[in-house]
Every structure is written in structure tokens, then in C-alpha cells.
Amino acid sequence: MRIKNKYRKPTTFNCNAGGRCSMSAVVWSLVGCLLMLHLYSLARHKDGVGGEIQLRMSQHPQFRELLEVEEENIQMPPPRKRSPRAAKRKPKRSTTLIDEFLDENSQLRNTFFPDQRTAIDPMKDTGNDSFYYYPGRMWLDTEGNPIQAHGGGILYDQKSRTYYWYGEYKDGPTYHAHKKGAARVDIIGVGCYSSKDLWTWKNEGIVLAAEESNETHDLHKLNVLERPKVIYNEKTGKYVMWMHIDDTNYTKASIGVAVSDYATGPFNYLHSKRPHGFESRDMTVFKDDDGVAYLIYSSDDNSELHIGPLTEDYLDVTQFMRRILVGHHREAPALFKYQGTYYMITSGCTGWAPNEALAHAAESIMGPWETMGNPCAGGSKMFRLTTFFAQSTFVIPLPGFPGLYIFMADRWNPADLRDSRYVWLPLIVGGPADRPLEYNFGFPLWSRLSIYWHRKWRLPQGWSGLK
Ligand code: GAL
Questions:
Q1: Would you say the CB of residue 459 lies under 6 angstroms from ligand 1?
Q2: Among the four residues 59, 92, 190, 289, which has the most C-beta atoms within 10 Å?
Q3: In whole angstroms, what is the distance from residue 112 CA to residue 106 CA?
Q4: Which residues are registered as beta bridge partners of 362?
Q5: 155 lies in which domain range?
Q6: Please, how many CA atoms are within 13 Å of residue 73, restricted to the half-sphere of its CB?
Q7: Total count of domains within the chain
Q8: What does the pLDDT look like over 174-226, one tens digit per residue?
Q9: Do the domain assignments include residue 2?
């Protein structure tokens, strides 16, 4: 029996003018169909790129491992016993996994920050465990010391065919400059590590050091130096370092530039400034295929990002700048390019506490940038809402494996910043979505970008860095 639905609009045309009306209806239907077909083929085309990778990847058993969605269920610990007096004094507050993560006395401490016994030590004969990344574990350099390269980035040096990892050397005591100030470590400098395989890292020393006595110097130890990134300038033959320079209270909000003839420094500090006259906090630099490099920084109280090309020598910004993701409050930008499309991962703005990552894409690096959604796959809902309890810092391209990248993130430990951990995970453009796409009615304009959680994982053996 058919039930008449009084709220349903009639689907047949009810038209008195007959011919003219049905003609325009037909024309419009045709236009609609063509539009849908176009959108569909566009989506197919974009997917096609990803589809190819998926195909190639899924044929390779080690790729299949990377694409597996691995669950991770961290249970909240039972509430701690409290004395009746304590319970009366302060009502019990409900805790979340993030509270547990931030609580240095939590019973889950070892889950988030596994102790030294489980450290990754590439110099030890680990047999079958060689080349495996264990996100969140301590990671030792070739001398057996924990790697100190936080908020870092990687430079691949063509000349020496070596990877260099630069980051904040934070091996000092954590303290609060003021009661309400963020936890901090005095500037020690920028640490540099070298590697041929992205797993074994040799300490190349501090390549840009703090200034001990001159209090007016940007690098005076009581200031802030964060997120250093190095790019190589083919025209000048110089290695150029860009970094976030600030005072203890984060009011200077500037960028700093340093330069060196060698990847391993020492770097000569040039100057700091507010790029384009605007505040600049979390930042990164990105060098495009045509040699033009760009600065991307959080500005206007971190409410938006700014992007603009650098001068030819990479030592300054030019006058060109675009505001992007205005009002989105994003920071910790990490950029990369795949098949002509620019991608960026950002975090929210919650200081050292973890939050949800978002992926963005653009046809032109200067924008407009569109937000695609949370790229994190696997783990648990809480893992995905906290970027696996970490914050983006860089995305490493892997030559020979189009579509496969390493997502580099920091698992900050605000109670002891030097013991912050590295979360490296496979990032894949074009892999299968782990849930329905969140945008534009099923016609994704961009390939799916996924960061897959793994307790342990390794790069596919065919990767050129692994012999
Ligand atoms: C974060 C930022 C870090 C550091 C931290 C200080 O938002 O990404 O690089 O500045 O704040 O609280």
C-alpha cells in the first residue's frame, strides 16, 4: 500500500504553459546532470591518484602494514583512594585521559612516557626490531643519549646525501618563570643530528648556541627559541635557519634568522623581526620545487596563519603576504606538497597540552586553503582527538615512495620538557578513509590524507635509505 506523504513535494511537473516550461526543465536537468558528471569525474580523478597509490601500496606487504588501522585502548585508571578529610576539602573532579596525560603522578605515566628500559637504541643489536619506530618511547643517539631535537624539522642535504634533524635542545631543568607562565627550559640552543637512514642519529652538537651573559641578545638564555627549521639555498650555497624568537612571556612574537656554510653549523645569528610587521609565534619554512621558499606563521594572537615568500637569499621575507585560515586559531604548521597540491597539518592552540590536528589543502601555496578534517586514523577516539597525545612539527618526504611521508610530532612533557618524546608515524595521501569523509556531500575535492597510529612500524624495505 502506498502512503501519501503530505510533506513530500510533487515530483512531476505541473505546468500550464506546457512546452516552454518542460523545455527549460529539461535544459536545467541536463545542466545539472553535466555538473554532477563533472564533479564525479573530478572526484574520480583526484581519487585516481590516491587509488593508484593504494593499489601499489596494497600489493606490497609492508605497505599494507602501514595502512592497517590499529586500535589502542588506554583504560582510565580506577580513582585514587582519598582520605575523608581530603574528599571533604575538595570535591572530586572528573578526570579525562588528557588530565591523566598531564598529571606526572598518574598511574598511566609509563604508558605515555615509557621508561628508559624500552628506549630505542639503534646501536644495540636489536635483531628483528631494527629500524622500527616506537612512537613515544625514548630515542637514543649513536652515543646512547636521548635525542634533543624538539619542535624540529629535517633537511635532506643533496651534497652529502644525509638527513639533518634540527630541533630545540632542551636538556635543562623545567621551571615556571611566573606562577601563570608556561613551563619552560632556558635556551641552550639548536641541536643537530645526522643520519643516512632516518633511524640512526649521530649528535652533531649545538649548531646555534644560547647567549649566556648579554641580556639584550635575542638568544639570551632567559628568552625563547622554538621550532627551528633549516633550508638550503642553491644560489648562495648557504644553509639558512628560521626560528621562533620570543621573550619569556611570548610578547616579542618574532622570527629569527641564522646562516651557515655547513649543514652542521656553526650558524651565525643575523637578526629577529616581526615579519610583515605582524606577530609571529609557531612557524615553519617550506621550500617549493621552483626554489622559492615561504614562511608560514601563526599571527594575530594565533587566530590566523600568515604565509609569504622569502627573498631569493632566504634571509628575509618579501612584502607579499596572505592571511589564511583566518579565525581558525591554528598553530604548529607542517607543510608538504604532493602532485602539485599543497598540504598542511596544524594543531589547535593549547600550549603544551595536546589537541586535535587538522589537515588543510590548497592548489596554490598562497591560498585559499581549505580544511579537510582530522587526519588521524586508528588508536582510539581520544588518540585521534589529541593527535596521539602529540603536536605536529614537520612532514618528511620519502623519495621513491610517492604519497608516503613521515609525520613528525612532539609529545610534550610539560613536567619535564627535556623528556618530551617524538611521535613519528606514516602519513599517506590517498589511502583509504577510516570513516566517511566529512566534507562536500560525498565528492571529496582533495585526496584523503591519513596519519596511521602504530605502536611500532618501519619504513618499507625498498626505501632508498635502507640498504
Ligand atoms: C605551544 C607551541 C609550542 C610552545 C608552547 C609553549 O602552543 O606550539 O611550540 O610555544 O606552546 O606553551
A1: no
A2: 190
A3: 10
A4: 342
A5: 48-452
A6: 1
A7: 1
A8: 999 998 889 999 999 999 999 999 999 999 999 999 999 999 999 999 999 99
A9: no
